[in-house]
Amino acid sequence: MLTIVEGIYKNGQVILNEIPKIDKPVKVMVTFIEDTEKYNKGDERKPGFLKGFFTYIAPDFNEPLDELKDYM
After folding, report:
1. Got the DSSP string for 3-66?
2. Are the C-beta atoms of 14 and 23 separated by less than 8 Å?
3. Handedness of CA 61, 63, 66, 70 (dihedral sign)
4. Partner residues linked to 13 by β-bridges
5. Quick one: pLDDT at residue 57?
6. What is the pLDDT of residue 18?
7. What confidence score (pLDDT) does residue 32 get?
8. Contact, 25 vs 33, CB < 8 A?
9. pLDDT per residue over 41-71, tens digit each?
10. Are strands 7-10 and 13-16 parallel, antiparallel or unpaired?
11. Which of 23, 24, 25, 28 is nearest to 2 (CA)?
């Protein structure tokens, strides 16, 4: 069984955000993820940031592909 619990390592201790429902000794593997602030920002991509990036779209872009006629 695999149980994942998030927490923080601080001053030599691992502080868990919740207590897992495990009632027997189990093997534990700890993975350290540096720079957690980078993943929590959520402001790196903004709506419309690719506006003007695609300068050409073929006129038949939405037409069915010949290779897929057997599946349609």
Report:
1. ----EEEETTEEEESS-----S---------S-HHHHH---SS-TTTTTTT-----TTTTSPPG
2. no
3. positive
4. 10
5. 85
6. 92
7. 87
8. no
9. 556 777 888 888 888 888 998 998 888 888 8
10. antiparallel
11. 28
